[in-house]
Amino acid sequence: MNEEVQVVKLFGIPFNVGNCVSGLVSALIVFGLVYWFSRKLELKPKGKQNMIEWLIDFTNGIVKSSMPDEQGKKYGLLIFTLFLFIFVSNQLGLAIQLPINGVNYVKSPTASPATTLTLAFLVLLLAHMMGVAKFGFNGYVKNSYFSPMPALFPINVLEQFTNFLTLALRLYGNIYSGEVLLTVIHDQLATSHAPWTFIPAIPLEMVWQGFSIFIGSIQAYVFVTLTMVYISQKVEKE
User: Contact 205/186 with Cβ under 8 angstroms?
Assistant: First the structure.
């Protein structure tokens, strides 16, 4: 899936316009959905209020599975927001594509390694910061790198890098590969051969769209679950 990339520099820092626009669109969709779901709340929930309450219960369950005590409650909003953003980002490219002069300005932002690496970096940075805030710097170093025994220090250091890479690349690989296959079905089967190849391409593309929605949902769940696991490792005693 080859496409041109438009890059602009701000204060000397390069930004991929397609990634920025797609991420902004995902954020606006999440904001709009949550705002709509949370209007006119009632004591006896129904309709869209049931949906927002189910989502909150679902993400709170993810938090409790890793941090069941009172301390975990402070991360409920983080996991709720992160799950919705990644879920919408994973599905965005399946519903909307906005190519202009070879540059795709709206796509799944998580189909770019820059986006997933940034999300993973922010999540792990937050985990380390919360560890320092909980135990102090010396206590954080001892709990994260010298527990349960000092001999594991090299492995514990290496684990920080592997956690970062696997968290980012797992999400990127699954979403990117799904969009690549959809592009192949559309460009190589539906439109590039004789007219009758368009007929089998329709059900094939529909099946893969459904499978991609499933994969995108699972990857959003996996990302936020691992986020809570990594945070709990830093704020709880080994």
Answer: yes
